[in-house]
Amino acid sequence: MDKLINDFSFGLFFWQLLLFLLLLFILRKFAWKPILNAVNEREKTIEDSLNQAKKAREEMANLKSENEKILKEAKMERDAILKEAREMREGIIAKAKDTAQAEADRLVENAKAAIQNEKAAAMTELKNQIATLSIEVAEKVLEKELSDKSAQEALAKTMINETKLN
What we know:
The chain has 166 residues and is an all-alpha fold. It is 93% helix and 0% strand.
């Protein structure tokens, strides 16, 4: 260290100081501003990127809530449509049952009427046959009993007495 102090040259120091100041001036003039601008631009870019990321997160949260809302509305609409479809199905089934019941009742009534008609026709036919048989039997009985005149007169008197006039 003593050697440094003893070998000190004021002229050399002056020129070194002058060159150092000149170097600082040149760096400040040409390099310092571009370096600071680049650092400022980089800082601004990073800040903008962070803001955009924050904005994107907020938009994603909004989209997620909107999607959930739309999904909830779609589920509600689906449920309403299914409920309406069930009601329509039940209405159609009830209408078909009513129509089938009415048709069955009509067929039963028609069948009852047909049975009554057939029964009446059978009864009429039966009555006609009975009447025919009765007449034939009566003819045969009367033929036998009316072969003599006194029996005819007795039968006529009995019938007159039994017959009531209206």
